[in-house]
Design goal:
48% of the residues lie in helices and 0% in strands. It contains four helices and no strands. Helix 1 packs across helix 3. The model has no long low-confidence stretch (mean pLDDT 88).
């Protein structure tokens, strides 16, 4: 996993640890989703020499995880709209167009 549970709790402003296992599951799913968006088999292709991802991709994982955590229901009652300069803005430079 490229982000820690502590990072996710800080990002989501969660002061308790009861949802830690859920956050791990959601972060792993977020990594798969992000790799799919970028058209790569694995995010490993973006790792630096220490195994870290660029900050934008780590933030993208946290953003996707936060969305999964906050929207666990299949129905939204508020009107959905696209927030500019978030996920797509962060990951666009890393997208693989060779596939």
């Amino acid at each position: 996993m490229y982000v820690t549970v502590e990072e996710l709790r800080r990002f989501l402003n969660i002061p308790f640890c009861e949802d830690d296992l859920l956050l791990v599951e959601l972060a792993e799913a977020a990594e798969d989703v992000l790799a799919g968006h970028l058209n790569v088999e694995s995010l490993e292709v973006y790792e630096n020499e220490t195994g870290e991802l660029p900050a934008a991709l780590k933030t993208a994982i946290k953003t996707i995880t936060a969305n999964f955590y906050q929207n666990r229901e299949s129905i939204a009652y508020a009107q959905a709209y696209k927030v500019p300069y978030t996920l797509e803005y962060m990951i666009q430079p890393y997208k693989n167009y060779q596939k």
